[in-house]
């Protein structure tokens, strides 16, 4: 689900010269071994600042083509036991999982297993889906770029009530999505853009229909291919395993006191596939996006299709096929963000700066709280420390 870490527009007022400054910085430091020490210290200072403001933990990894990889973690993975957060800890990827799901679908497209213009009812025959008027007009591509018009399942009051009353039960994808039953489309398929988690949950079911098990497919064709040894798909089968995953926190009473909600967070994420469900280390997240943009997962032609941006009503580029477009003033980025009740992150590639950045926290990024309010400029301050 999207959280405040997706609001890159807040940086526009301070990044107008970022691209030019980074070019100068790289020209001066390209011959040095490792990421520039002054940049490391600047980033550490920013992370420590926000941990001191109440965020339990923050992790960052950055890769630059000329300088290489650097990662750092600040704060705690668990407050109760005062467990330090390290770069080896795994983070909830939340909606960044959508990019992984999109790659699976596009690989099946490349293999001739599906067409992007195929109607989704060709693959999906669920009693809660077919009665929706107009669903037969929805194509796979409309799911990928959020133009389907399908309603949001994750905010349905009945589903939210069920989760609150039985927070530790892991549901399956069909159970979760069935809460759109009886609802109408929000708009005519293909007529406009509206971000909906429903779209990518359905994509996981389509991938299951074609592959027999999209989780096993993803593990083989993405994780193994890119050597992502610290990336996992949560499920009821591994919910109790020790995956070196961060604990999750939420300022439940809005008093500026983080409360551990790890069991709720893990069960909720384990219930979702396609739109969520993945956990990974910071460096694994970087490896995934690097692998994608370098052509290790998709052909150049398919990568171009993936970046066919849907425009907003104002004519701004919004979303491709599992990718978000970020206008950063004098430069741009592509990637995805994710938010949850106990976590948040962003993974972004800056093509003009030849850099990939991943930022993650183990604190709520979806709902208002005093701590979240203090962290509104977090991502901006980190990127400014990296590239100014």
TrEMBL record:
Q: Sorted alphabetically, which InterPro entries does this protein's record hold?
A: Beta-lactam-related, Beta-lactam/transpept-like, Diverse_Enzym_Activities
Query: Signal peptide position in this chain?
Result: none
Q: Which residues form the Beta-lactamase-related domain?
A: 45-369
Q: Which PANTHER family match?
A: BETA-LACTAMASE-RELATED
Organism of provenance: Ulvibacterium marinum
* Keyword hit for ATP-binding: no
Q: What is this protein called?
A: Class A beta-lactamase-related serine hydrolase
Which GO molecular function terms does the record list? hydrolase activity
Keyword tags: Hydrolase
């Amino acid at each position: 689900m999207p959280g405040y870490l997706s609001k890159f527009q807040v940086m526009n007022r301070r990044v107008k010269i970022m691209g030019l400054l980074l070019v100068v910085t790289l020209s001066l430091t390209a011959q040095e071994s490792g990421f520039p020490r002054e940049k490391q210290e600047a980033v550490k200072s920013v992370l420590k600042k926000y941990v001191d403001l109440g965020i339990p933990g923050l992790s960052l990894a950055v890769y630059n083509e000329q300088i290489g990889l650097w990662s750092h973690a600040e704060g705690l993975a668990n407050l109760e036991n005062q467990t330090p957060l390290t770069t080896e800890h795994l983070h909830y990827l939340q909606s960044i999982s959508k990019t992984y799901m999109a790659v699976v679908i596009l690989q099946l497209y490349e293999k001739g297993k599906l067409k992007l213009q195929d109607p989704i009812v060709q693959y999906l025959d669920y009693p809660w889906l077919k009665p929706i008027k107009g669903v037969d007009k929805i194509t796979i591509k409309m799911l990928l770029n959020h133009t389907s018009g399908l309603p949001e399942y994750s905010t349905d009051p009945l589903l939210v009530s069920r989760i609150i009353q039985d927070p530790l039960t892991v549901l399956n994808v069909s159970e979760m999505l069935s809460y759109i039953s009886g609802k109408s489309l929000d708009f005519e398929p293909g007529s406009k853009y509206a971000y909906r988690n429903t779209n990518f949950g359905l994509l996981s079911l389509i991938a299951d229909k074609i592959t027999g098990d999209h989780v096993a497919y993803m593990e083989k064709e993405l994780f193994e291919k890119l050597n992502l040894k610290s990336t996992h798909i949560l499920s009821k089968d591994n919910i109790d395993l020790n995956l070196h995953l961060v604990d999750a926190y939420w300022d439940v009473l809005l008093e500026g006191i983080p409360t551990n909600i790890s069991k709720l967070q893990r069960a909720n994420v384990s219930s979702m596939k396609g739109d969520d469900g993945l956990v990974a280390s910071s460096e694994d997240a970087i490896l995934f996006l690097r692998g994608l943009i370098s052509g290790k997962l998709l052909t150049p032609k398919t990568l171009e299709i993936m970046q066919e941006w849907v425009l907003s009503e104002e004519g701004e580029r919004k979303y491709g096929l599992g990718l978000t477009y970020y206008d950063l003033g004098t430069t741009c980025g592509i990637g995805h963000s994710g938010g949850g009740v106990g976590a948040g992150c962003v993974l972004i590639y800056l093509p003009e700066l030849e850099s990939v950045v991943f930022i993650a926290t183990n604190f709520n990024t979806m709902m208002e709280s005093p701590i979240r309010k203090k962290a509104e400029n977090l991502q901006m301050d980190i990127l400014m420390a990296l590239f100014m």
